[in-house]
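Narrative progress, year one. The postdoctoral researcher (J.K.) led the effort to move from monomer predictions toward full complexes, under supervision of the PI. The following entry was the first complex the group processed end to end, covering 504 residues in total.
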Amino acid sequence: MLKINQLRKQYQGFSLHCSMEVQPGCITGLVGRNGAGKSTTLKAALGLIRVDGGSVEMFGKDVSVLTDQDKQKLGVVLSDSGFSTYLSIRDITRILKCLYPDYEHDWFIQKCQHFGLPLDQKIKEFSTGMNAELKILIALCHHASLLILDEPTAGMDVVVRDELLDLLRAYMEEDDSRSIIISSHISSDLESLCDDFYMIHEGEIILHEETDVLLSDYALLKADEAMYVKLDPQYILKSKKESYGYSCLTNKRQYYMENYPNLIMEKGSIDDLILMMLAKGKEV
Amino acid sequence: MKGLLVKDFCLVLQQKKFLVLLLLLSVVLNFNSGGSFVVLYLTFVCSFFVINSIAYDECENGYRFLFTLPVRRKTYVRAKYVFAVLICTMAWLVGCLISSAFYLAKNQQSSVQEGMGEACVLLPLILIFLAIMLPIQFKFGSEKGRIVMAFTFCGCILIGYLLQKIGERSGEQIGQIMQWVDRLLKQGWWIQTGILGIAAVMILGISYLVSITVMRRKEF
């Protein structure tokens, strides 16, 4: 559905060099700290920036030669951009009708009413959460095959966020060839939604893993000084000095469970992964 | 392209109060000034809706989202030029109606044709103005665009002044050209409109090509 191959983009003080793929029927997460290159990667995928090398393919075509018909199969949410905030939802429906032959007007209006979005008010008068809700509904209203979502749930309250994540799940269930790529800082969103993850750091992909594998095989090992010395370092991805000794991230939980029965172990979560892989601190 | 035009007209209609005020002011100005002033005033003010629509698109990283829609950069530029021609023509027609109604109300039927003659020259002039403005707005955005626009018009005045000076000092050749242009302009409003119309179409065409190149090079 989306294939990024050896993409290179050079800015002053920042260099992006990454490859990734979004498979049909999959929800792929893109995680990383602020400034890691998530938005730049998505902008390159959308053809919004010129790349210095590599290629981006969407729907089997180079992104630079996508036609209007191809782009009608695409739904996008950008955290810092959208329709002019001087427009109202009623204005936007008129625009969407012209842009997308598959635009579902009744569904869109019904969802806007469900989320309490006023149809005749200018968007600039909306709260951050309302604006984020509207952006997701716009991306979903025309039966897109691929959704590219950059921080789509930013600013939403927990209840609405949950409802919108359900909408994304329902969108995927409708057609098993659809795909989503989503970047978010809220790891619980991603954990419950994504099939696989890419972790990006300083412009490079440092980890790609399926969510099931992450939740079943990754763990945080907590060892005192004596235990740490005895630990087999073969499957330790990262270690960090803590007040009690060391915390270590592994992707072979079963191995350490069998061989070190007294070792304290916590199941891996995306937050743990981000903290261990990306956090600055006393790394060992 | 239809979607983009709908967006631009929706943005214009967001300023309903301003439009009503503009219309009232035009009628009042027509009573005071008469002639084709109202046509110039309305068309010129409405031409700024085109510049404003670019500022709206640019605002809050708007371009970034716009180009994720099924809209190519070339289509976007084309939509802006179509919007420019449409809005200016509409404003021009309304101006002509007000001006004609004023003459007819004063029972000056013969002045209607004269007034229309003057008005016909104005539309291509305003379109030439927009043809200069649009690539500047696309290239520099609304903020820097204003400064560049000021320099551009200063440059135009300077070029005009220099041409005049060269004409004064030069030999017969330029003098003959100036006389020919002068004779042509004295032929009547329809000649002037024809010349300006052809010039407007040519300048708009060049401007459109420049704008496409500018937009294709842009990163969002």
